[in-house]
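Retro notes (design track)

What went well: tokenization of the new backbones is finally stable.
What didn't: we kept losing track of which sequence belonged to which structure.
Fix going forward: every design gets posted as structure first, then sequence, in one message. First example under the new rule, 381 residues:
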């Protein structure tokens, strides 16, 4: 689908998008997609997409309402869960590609680029249980390296140039102290660094065309200093050892800190700039990979809450997009109805979370306008 067709769709069609859902559409959506606006600055806009059974009320490509919203707004997508070991590797010897294949096929039919997330989520909590319990035998290092390299080579070999960017390693740094997690794999291979390095070297060889990303959630809010410092140490180590890492994926699961957005931003922006300066001075590109906002400390009133979230998002993007190596911004879902946040951290007052660009009834919110304005205000890449 070319850009004009997609824009046409957006002009008339988020309404069509909700045809399968009983909720009415109040506001007419903007006539210009976020991806189209981003592209005027040399950037792209995208979102996470899930798998579901056809027609399920889910944030899935197989839900026509959600699919049309993504097709209307996005130039690229990422599978929220279907490339993870937990989904792709039911057993040590099997791969289950069907669900990811279905997402990729849909994306390609709609001319959406696809990112891969992820090849190694380096925490025991996110390993399949069989991997935590695995018997590495008499030569544990050899067997661990075989398992990891086979996984990456199989996935990258299967998808070739259909995927242009991978989160090779996800969340390897402990937020509390900045130290790297140990896992069954790292204990067998002799430490976390050799394990992560092997993942990147294997990915570079198997997919020389692809952008290789380290992806993590260190953010600009208070309480993230140790996490940011740990990520910087990891990135420095990659450079020192010649590990082929191209970019830092900044997840951007933002959390408002109270109603005075200006004061919050004023307190947080210096440290954030300092962090991004350090990352980019090492030669890493940046991506925003999983943007959404937890509306903590904002009143339950929807108009006030949505405006606070929008202002916070705008300030964050204005600063972060000022780094011109940043070309891709992806949200972790586009519709409040399907966001992971409600299940992860509900609001204390019981009001439903409103973390994304579109509300439960697929109506655009002020956060969408904030993202559009941030793209429009960004410098050309
Ligand atoms: O699909 C099964 C369902 O059949 C089962 O009944 C249910 C019972 O728990 O689980 C369902 O799977 C859940 C899946 O989300 C789909 O809803 C998994 O348990 C749950 O662990 C999984 O959570 C995902 C989480 O990563 C762990 O993989 C979230 O959807 C996803 O949004 C989240 O995404 C992460 C990024 O990968 C990395 N960065 C942080 C981000 C948010 O946590």
């Amino acid at each position: 689908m070319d850009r004009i067709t997609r824009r046409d769709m957006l002009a008339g069609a988020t309404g069509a998008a909700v045809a399968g859902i009983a909720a009415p559409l109040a506001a007419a959506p903007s006539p210009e997609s976020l991806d189209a606006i981003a592209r005027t600055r040399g950037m792209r806009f995208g979102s996470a997409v899930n798998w579901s059974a056809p027609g399920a009320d889910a944030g899935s490509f197989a839900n026509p309402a959600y699919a049309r919203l993504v097709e209307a707004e996005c130039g690229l997508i990422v599978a929220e869960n279907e490339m993870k070991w937990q989904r792709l590797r039911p057993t040590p010897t099997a791969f289950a590609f069907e669900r990811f294949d279905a997402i990729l096929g849909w994306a390609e039919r709609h001319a959406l680029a696809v990112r891969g997330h992820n090849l190694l989520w380096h925490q025991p909590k996110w390993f399949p249980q069989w991997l935590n319990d695995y018997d590495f035998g008499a030569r544990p290092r050899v067997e661990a390296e075989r398992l990891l390299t086979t996984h990456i080579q199989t996935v990258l070999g299967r998808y070739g140039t259909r995927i242009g960017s991978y989160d090779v390693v996800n969340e390897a740094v402990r937020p509390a102290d900045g130290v790297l997690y140990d896992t069954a794999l790292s204990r067998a291979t002799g430490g976390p660094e050799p394990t992560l390095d092997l993942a990147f070297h294997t990915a570079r060889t198997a997919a020389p065309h692809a952008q290789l990303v380290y992806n993590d959630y260190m953010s600009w809010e208070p309480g993230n200093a140790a996490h940011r410092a740990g990520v910087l140490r990891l990135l420095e180590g990659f450079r020192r050892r010649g590990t082929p890492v191209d970019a830092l994926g900044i997840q951007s699961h933002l959390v408002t800190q109270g109603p005075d957005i200006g004061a919050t931003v004023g307190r947080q922006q210096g440290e954030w700039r300092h962090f991004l300066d350090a990352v980019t001075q090492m030669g890493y590109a940046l991506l925003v990979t999983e943007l959404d906002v937890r509306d903590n400390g904002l009143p339950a009133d929807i108009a006030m809450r949505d405006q606070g979230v929008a202002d916070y998002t705008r300030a964050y993007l204005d600063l972060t997009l000022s780094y011109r190596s940043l070309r891709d911004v992806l949200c972790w879902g586009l519709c409040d109805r399907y966001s992971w946040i409600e299940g992860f951290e509900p609001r204390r007052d019981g009001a439903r979370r409103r973390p994304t660009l579109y509300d439960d009834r697929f109506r655009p919110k002020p956060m969408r306008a904030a993202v559009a304005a941030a793209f429009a205000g960004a410098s050309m890449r």
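Added context from the reviewer: The two ends are 24 Å apart (CA to CA).
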